[in-house]
């Protein structure tokens, strides 16, 4: 049901029942002057109430939910975002990324951000060794960024993060302060769209499973593993912000990622550094090699695609009538 | 969609899209050995994903949601439950109470618990003065508890709580430790089902609006006021747990309660203490008087009603087929 587009009449909020509470909550919320927020809230309240009605949710279950969400909130710190982890493990993060960052064929697909991105990494030059872990298997990474016409894109800010050889991000180290980032770098692409750096071969790891989300996975009989991967984030004015990751083929968790992030187009086979490359990049011959060409969409193309896909999807859901797109997001049209 | 009742085949979790992520998340969650939890999770994930699809939720909005929920969690303390407040202000609390505590006609209706119940109140005798606030308007409360056949119910534990004359609960006082409960009492009904106590006339108050839920109401253009009321909770083995409240007729917020709790059957007109009552109960003649007869349902009757209403409601929603009731809650039947 849509909130009324006629002037809001504040409802009489009394004797609310299982059958009429939803429309009444939506009517009082419809005083909100922001049409988009009003629509989002109307859908949120309706789905939350329908969830309770369809499950006949008990007071005890409701309280368990309240306590679970409270524990999730309490687990959040500057370096751990348990709500993102919850969203990741319930597939919401991947879904939202897919909706908000539609990709034309051949553009690099996005995937989950995860809870471990920080702003601590310092800008590095090409060739930067992003990992100080001596136990890691050295990995030379030679990458390039192009637009959808295969033209190199220079000056892209590239944010990279990976775990150490034990599967821990720096923020998970005891006493981590942010002053000593490791397994992270921020690079810029050169005139040819190239960026290259030295890293270590990613390993599978468990998402933090000592908190409420870990307990949830356990109760659900799900494992907490993510397949080996390295995160990348690309930013440049005029291009759609790309959050993605590359996954290693053949990983034991390739088809059971706890956060649903793996896409075939993002799976790579590692190569081997040739003697020529060894000299050029100052690494040992025979080392592991990762090469990948990332393809960015322009903001304009993304916005066009986003609008088209929004309309198409909402038509399919039967909820497009009476809607319009404002600032790239669907809202009920005002009469 | 129902989770399959055939043995779970773990899905290949790769290349998940807007259109197939929901069924895949539900399939991996279907490993859960608890049939009820599996059903609740399946409905939760489906509604959460449908919400994102119907709104075409943006990454920025998703992040605003993550930050909002995190702030709600951070606001929770031993004496403040911001998630309950969120549930209250979105109508979920009243809905869940209505589902879980169905009432036959003439039984006392339930309403929201709210975030201010504590376990600090000490057992008091009849006549107990629950409020130490000298600025409050004295109120003599003469109440009785019966079953649905109007027989008195003795030995019911009655938990009562109200604000002071400024609209604050004791837990909201600076430095509140729990050692000095005020505006609270726990009484027992006598052989006649009677309990009586001295209180103060309730006043309207604002739900705590200095946190994220307060900000939400502000953004939505909603006021944070609750009409004057006094909370009651009734417990006795064999009877359905009753959480309710009495509201004063004519309150300025009678029809716009921020948490949707007002029901006509719970609105009272205050009376005046007669000279006889003044002597009997040792209060000033002409004082304000509250009288109310609470009617409890038995657990057995409630369970019967709950099951009947669950089946009826789910039939109406078209989701009853293939369901059964286990421990009073609907779950998909196993083949």
TrEMBL record, chains A, B:
Superkingdom, natural source: Eukaryota
One BP annotation, GO: catechol-containing compound metabolic process
Stretches assigned to the Intradiol ring-cleavage dioxygenases domain: 131-297
Pfam families with a match to the protein in the record: Dioxygenase_C, Dioxygenase_N
Keywords from the UniProt entry: Dioxygenase, Iron, Metal-binding, Oxidoreductase
Essential cofactor(s): Fe(3+)
MF-aspect GO terms: catechol 1,2-dioxygenase activity; ferric iron binding
Ranges of residues in domain Catechol dioxygenase N-terminal: 34-104
Coiled-coil boundaries: none
PANTHER family, alphabetized: DIOXYGENASE, PUTATIVE (AFU_ORTHOLOGUE AFUA_2G02910)-RELATED (PTHR33711), INTRADIOL RING-CLEAVAGE DIOXYGENASES DOMAIN-CONTAINING PROTEIN-RELATED (PTHR33711:SF7)
Family according to the record: Belongs to the intradiol ring-cleavage dioxygenase family.
Name of protein: Aromatic compound dioxygenase
Organism name: Amniculicola lignicola CBS 123094
Lineage: Eukaryota, Fungi, Dikarya, Ascomycota, Pezizomycotina
